[in-house]
């Protein structure tokens, strides 16, 4: 899902051959790198070994020049007339995005959204292991969601420590989101994805991304309205 309102910062690229830190990758390029990785993984599944920049750009919905510029941030330039080796480029982008690390995700909120996220099978294939789900409702605590058992949010810090969770997803009402976010950060988790319909405040050094589906729908409505108006294009 696309985050419209976030505190995302540029991320480091891959160090050069001498071990020197790479330049920061701009956030917009990071977002597009995820598209390239998805396209490359599809090609891998189809048994494709090499791909041209034009074909990869088309599959990702960007221009060839944008693709080449983005890939230059991770030190991959391809070979003229040959293109990119799909498996190598996939590994290279995954490393730049941090997907070679062990990411353990905890979900706070076992409502409809939280349960749907916990049951989503696509996280594991992309390097994310959902290790815990929490709720405050005692009628929900102890129930099974997929292979997980819902933990009491009162035990948040203990379970985060026990499971080694290093990412947290907040699927919470606005009224309680900030308090839970504060506890998550205090417990040492510095990567937070929030679906709560409220602006959260986090300390410097904490990566917070906010997914606002209502805002996304409003933007879609704007473009749909323009597309329907005489003489207008989306």
TrEMBL record:
Pfam families: CoA_binding (PF02629), Put_DNA-bind_N (PF06971). SMART domains: CoA_binding (SM00881). Coiled coil: none annotated. InterPro entries: CoA-bd, NAD(P)-bd_dom_sf, Rex_actinobacterial-type, Rex_DNA-bd_C_dom, Tscrpt_rep_Rex, WH-like_DNA-bd_sf, WH_DNA-bd_sf. Its main location: cytoplasm. It is found in: Cytoplasm. The keyword NAD applies. Residues 35-74 bind DNA. The keyword Transmembrane does not apply. It comes from the Bacteria. Gene3D superfamilies: NAD(P)-binding Rossmann-like Domain, Winged helix-like DNA-binding domain superfamily/Winged helix DNA-binding domain. Residues 1-21 are annotated as: Disordered. Residues 98-199 form the CoA-binding domain. NAD(+) binds at residues 109-114. Keywords: Cytoplasm, DNA-binding, NAD, Repressor, Transcription, Transcription regulation. Residues 1-10 have a biased composition (Polar residues). Homodimer. Belongs to the transcriptional regulatory Rex family. Modulates transcription in response to changes in cellular NADH/NAD(+) redox state. This is Redox-sensing transcriptional repressor Rex. It comes from Pseudarthrobacter defluvii. The gene is rex.
């Amino acid at each position: 899902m696309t985050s419209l309102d976030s505190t995302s910062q540029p991320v480091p690229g891959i160090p050069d051959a001498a071990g020197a830190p790479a330049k920061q990758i701009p956030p917009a390029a990071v977002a597009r790198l995820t598209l390239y990785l998805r396209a490359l993984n599809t090609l891998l599944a189809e048994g494709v070994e090499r791909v041209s920049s034009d074909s990869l750009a088309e599959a990702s919905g960007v221009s060839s020049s944008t693709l080449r510029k983005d890939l230059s941030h991770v030190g991959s330039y391809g070979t003229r007339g040959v293109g990119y080796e799909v498996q190598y480029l996939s590994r290279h982008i995954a490393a730049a995005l941090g997907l070679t690390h062990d990411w353990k995700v905890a979900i706070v909120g076992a409502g409809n959204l939280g349960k749907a996220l916990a049951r989503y099978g696509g996280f594991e294939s992309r390097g994310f292991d959902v290790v815990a789900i929490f709720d405050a409702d005692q009628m929900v605590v102890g129930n099974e969601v997929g292979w997980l058992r819902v933990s009491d949010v009162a035990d948040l810090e203990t379970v985060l420590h026990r499971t080694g969770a290093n990412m947290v997803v907040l699927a919470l009402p606005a009224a309680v989101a900030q308090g839970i976010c504060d506890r998550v950060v205090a417990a040492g988790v510095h990567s937070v994805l929030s679906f709560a319909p409220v602006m959260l405040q986090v300390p410097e050094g904490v990566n917070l991304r906010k997914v606002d589906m209502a805002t996304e729908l409003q933007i879609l409505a704007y473009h749909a309205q323009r597309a329907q108006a005489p003489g207008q294009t989306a």
